[in-house]
Amino acid sequence: MTVLGHLEDIPPGEGRTYDVHGEMVAVFRLRDGSVRALSAVCPHRGGPLADGQIDHEVVVCPMHLMAFDLTTGCSLSGQPDLTVYPVTVDADGYLVIASLTASEVPS
Amino acid sequence: MSGTERLRSEPRREDERRAAERGQAQPPRLVVIGNGMAGARTVEEILSRGGDFAITMFGDEPYGNYNRIMLSNVLAGVEDESGIFLNDLSWYTDNGITLHAGRRISRIDRFAKQVYAEDGTATPYDKLIIATGSRAFVPPIPGIHRPGRGYHQGVFAFRTLDDTRSMIRYAREHERAVVIGGGLLGLEAARGLQNHVSHVTLLHAMGHLMNTQLDAQAGAILQRSVEQLGIEVVCDAMTTEILGKHAVTGVKLADGRVIDCDVVVVAAGIRANTEVAAASGLVVERGIVVDDQMRAQDEPDIYVVGECAQHRGETYGLVAPLWDQAKVLADHLTGRDPRAAYHGSRIATKLKVAGVDVASMGLKEPERDDDETLIFSEPRKGIYKSVIIRDGRLVGATLVGDVKKVAFLMQAFDRGLALPEDRVELMFDLGGPPAEVSAAELADDAQVCNCNGVTKATIAETVHGGCKTVSGVMDKTRAGKGCGTCKSLVAQIVEWAAGGAVEEDPRASWYVPGVPMPKPELMAAIRTHDLRSVSSVFAKLVPGGQEDAKSKMGLASLLKMMWGEDYVDERDARFINDRVHANIQRDGTFSVVPQMKGGVTTPAQLKRIAEVAEKHAVPMVKLTGGQRIDLLGVPKEKLPEIWADLDMPSGYAYGKSFRTVKTCVGSDFCRFGVGDSTALGIALEERYQGIEGPGKMKLAVTGCPRNCAEAYVKDLGVVAIDGGRWEIYVGGAAGAHVRKGDLLATVESPDEVITLTGRFLQYYRENANWLERTYAWVPRVGIEHIRAVVVDDTEGLAAGLDAAMDASVAAYRDPWKERAQPATPGQFRTSLPLVVLPQVPVR
């Protein structure tokens, strides 16, 4: 388990990028209070997904508006899918991400 | 909802068994008589709305559901039978629908609520849909039937797949065909038969071809084109007898002529199949009479759709009205929108008839003395165009041979758009882009969208995969999502690939895709409910309160415009550029463009910029097209520091907002200048800096008509003319789309320019759709209308527009001052993955 930081570090409806043991992970704080974590790089042209706009279902990359499902990581615009990371908020409001196993880390 | 979804994907029997186990009520029973395009489409619409019914369908023909429109392609050999099926038998199983294909219903018992098949079986219903369509009308010509054996040997109707199959089989072994009927279907049959026999004659009882859709002149030109394809055409030809003892040998006309032939195809129109309804006591005239909910007269549980329905006195034989009817009925039956009502369809068709492009809509001939009519005719080339205008609106149009303008005309006809001042532009593209290639002619691997690299084949595959709306295809393939110039071609290809079954996306009229309202309604609702934040708009105005990422930016812009200082700014509603007041670049860095009003700078300012660029090792310093200096390659986390070092206001080179005013040197230095364009440009930028809008607003002021500042091609361009006066042009563009602006007004003073600029921009802000630039909005609304509102104030809106603009101007704050304290936690923290991005070379 890795503590990324406090939930309040992410404004509602936005995302921030975290370096998790060398992996770039974008964590999003949805307006309903829940959180999602995905690989931070758009597979299309390398756009920074944490700078994208989100709703309750998708994140839209700011570069060329490629969309990805926030929960499954599936591309909705014909790109490779993103890796999804299990992320939770603990009792004190800290973001906790499960340790990445080798199989979860894209090579 | 997810429960319904899950159940629907399994066979119905399973549903029922489970429902019974749980002791639940079974879903209502929906019976559909007719498995053609109307019946199946209605069921599809019901399923897509999550409608929970136990559905049973009865079809006359022993197949799944196919696209009847494509039968002429099957006849012509350009399409396989397999290619025309819309839903194969597995679709019915997958959706838990019981299909009785080839079982005919002979009677409806309205009181016991049961339908009886010809084999005597009874099926009970709670709701019944009649979609029996129509059949070929076969005129009572002597010799056309053989007593007790159907049609005479060699005589065919042209309506069903079976008709088409037997026609092909028979025609292959024969030589000469006669087609009776010179309407759409007859022409298609004649063209298709050329594929199978060496000689085809088309007989038409009326004076000219396609007389329902075309006037005599257009009909004559179509006839010429059809004859050039090798089809012999005889008009005013009343067939009086079919000749031949055992098989057809010829037909005899009223004037005594005999035309030898061994195949006769009857395409003399259609008649609604209403016998079952009439025999069962429903009200039947030319079709089964229905109300606006497609409900049979006086029958609470019986509905009718498609060609067999008669609505407000009209029956329709084309596919578009049927789609409309299916949607209304599905909305009504599923309770999605109990007030859904069908108001009739405006018929506009675009077809390739026997290889000739034909489009027709509305009136074919003028009706009133003051109807404006334009006719262009070039028989040698087979081209005919006519346009009928009433009270400034398009009420009819006919195009034969050249349908390049059809997309615009259909839109103008359907939505009552303002028409161009030069009416000739309705018929021809004047000085526009080169002639368009038609969708059908385009090679499969041709790249349609050059921005996103999408080929015609990809678009066609997406349509065949079931996505039949233009916007849906654009979303899926990204075609047309770059500069947007290919949108009309994408639309044409979707239409072509869908074989006429293209669906209109209601979202096309919405301001943003995620809130189901056009802009005026949306603004009214926002005011009524006092909605001041983007999240409150979603919560209040979207059914289910669903947020939509792609709608946030447009809503943020609209709310900011409407509420000014009282707007509740939720930063996540902003696009990244607006969150950090800079333009994101391909490598995830940003570009910084300081304000340089009117493109005028000073040595001190240049020194400052140079020092900042050096201090921060800015990778590229570039002059922009808007007469400013761009610092490119700045990392997000460095932005506040750079702004502080520059200590200059933002140039807004990143937003959907007022950008810049380009100027020439004007009268101060230029030998030709007749007006002080630089001073006016600076004053305009000073006043309207940073104002947000539906799209970018790029302006220019030029000191004489030589136009060095390119004012004719700006969203708003001002040109000084001799005598101290100023011309104001609006709606110009010189990007992916090139358009010269329309002259809005000529005024006497710079102050008037400033006032009219504000009023025009405010009117644009309040009325244009999201991302609709002035070059699209001005022609859509019409320059006369805009002039009436903005210059002449005929609608009394001017004072309100001026006041709203004043408020926006007063609310302006330089965003680059927002730097001491981040507006949100980590506002300027990098989101860059740093390693995998393309590295932009440093020069």
From TrEMBL, chain A:
Pfam families, per the entry: Rieske
Keywords noted in UniProt: 2Fe-2S, Iron, Iron-sulfur, Metal-binding
GO MF annotations in UniProt: 2 iron, 2 sulfur cluster binding; metal ion binding; monooxygenase activity; oxidoreductase activity, acting on paired donors, with incorporation or reduction of molecular oxygen
Domain Rieske: 2-96
Top-rank lineage group of the source organism: Bacteria
Membrane listed as a keyword: no
Presence of keyword Hydrolase: no
Name the record gives this protein: Rieske domain-containing protein
Organism field: Actinoplanes nipponensis
Upper classification of the organism: Bacteria, Bacillati, Actinomycetota, Actinomycetes, Micromonosporales
From TrEMBL, chain B:
Superkingdom to which the source organism belongs: Bacteria
GO BP field: nitrate assimilation
Location of region: Disordered: 1-28
The keyword Zinc-finger belongs to this UniProt entry's keyword annotation: no
The protein's annotated pathway: Nitrogen metabolism; nitrate reduction (assimilation)
Nitrite/sulphite reductase 4Fe-4S domain: residues covered: 655-792
Protein name in UniProt: assimilatory sulfite reductase (ferredoxin)
Gene: nasD
